TrEMBL record:
Keyword ATP-binding: yes
Ranges that cross the membrane: 34-67, 95-116
Subcellular location: Cell membrane
Assigned EC number: 2.7.1.66
Cofactor requirement: Mg(2+)
Protein name: Diacylglycerol kinase
Length: 125
């Protein structure tokens, strides 16, 4: 089989950014993740979180958002493959959605561990 010439690196980045833009503008859940990220970043500056805490928050944002991208990709592929209701299609979509949910719950718990003590301290409770 003839080897196809690969796109230049800048084009690959362009496709990746196009994917991010498509998911952020079209997927409701991704918009919610973006709003949550902005709120946490503001809270991070307000409560002067440490560099390690910033790293934890940024890593968890990356994890949740990357999984949301993969979830959208799985949904698109399943819908492309079949329009019928099939158990394997359900498993693929539900498992991908479950992956996002697990990461989002863990991120929310980590966020509470970081921010609740700072909030209580600032309220002098
Ligand atoms: N082809 C299918 N066969 C069987 N079950 C399906 C199929 N397509 C969707 N489902 C079921 O319906 C649910 C919702 O599917 P849908 O494609 O509407 O995702 P969604 O609710 O739009 O997800 P999101 O909110 O993440 O975009 C799936 O999680 C799955 O349980």
């Amino acid at each position: 089989m003839k080897k196809q010439k690969k796109d230049p690196l800048y084009k690959s980045f362009g496709y990746a950014f196009a994917g991010i833009f498509a998911v952020v503008t079209k997927e409701r859940n991704m918009k919610i993740h973006c709003v949550a990220m902005v709120c946490v970043v503001i809270a991070g500056f307000v409560f002067h979180i440490t560099p390690v805490e910033w790293c934890i928050c940024l890593t968890l944002f990356g994890l949740v958002m990357a999984l949301e991208m993969v979830n959208t990709a799985v949904e698109a592929v399943v819908d492309l493959v079949t329009e019928e209701r099939k158990p394997l299609a359900k498993l693929a979509k539900d498992a991908a959605a479950g992956a996002v949910l697990i990461a989002a719950i863990m991120a929310a718990i980590a966020g509470m561990i970081i921010f609740i003590p700072k909030l209580l301290e600032s309220l002098s409770i």
